[in-house]
Specification:
The chain is about 70% helix and about 0% strand.
């Protein structure tokens, strides 16, 4: 019974922490950038064009250089990707997404280190050292060689 109460307290604290993250300026900026990305007609047109060309690109990749449209598709996919990546709303969203991920990585690292210095915390960010054995978190194939 005591262990169950302790777990409930931990889960409550985790929910409070999640609520604080959701209310943070970083999360608010992320939601704002996502809204701008999703509601701008020009940005959405660029994303749709790129997505459509990506489907053709994947078909061409199955045959490689032997596909009759290989060169054209390769050039167009690069052009559309560059056009999409240079879009103000896409760039702002990606930046906001990275900032939110950075916040989540820091929180994960703090929680993990509070438990033990040796605990491996998957951050997904190669700049974090997640314990003595594995840089970049398990699953990243970090310096410890793990791939779990």
């Amino acid at each position: 019974m005591l262990a169950t109460m302790e777990r409930l307290e931990i889960l409550d604290a985790a929910e409070q922490l999640a609520g604080q993250i959701l209310e943070s300026d970083v999360a608010e900026h992320y939601r704002y950038c996502l809204y701008k990305l999703n509601t701008n007609k020009e940005t959405q047109a660029k994303i749709r064009k790129f997505t459509k060309m990506k489907e053709l690109y994947e078909e061409v990749q199955r045959f490689g250089r032997y596909h009759p449209d290989y060169k054209r598709v390769m050039m167009e996919i690069r052009t559309l990707k560059r056009d999409m990546d240079m879009d103000e709303h896409v760039a702002n969203f990606r930046h906001a997404e990275n900032e939110l991920q950075d916040l989540l990585d820091h929180v994960s690292l703090l929680v993990g280190r509070a438990v033990s210095e040796q605990i491996k915390v998957p951050t997904g960010n190669p700049f974090f050292s997640s314990g003595s054995a594995c840089g970049g978190g398990c699953g990243s194939g970090g310096s410890c060689g793990c791939s779990a």
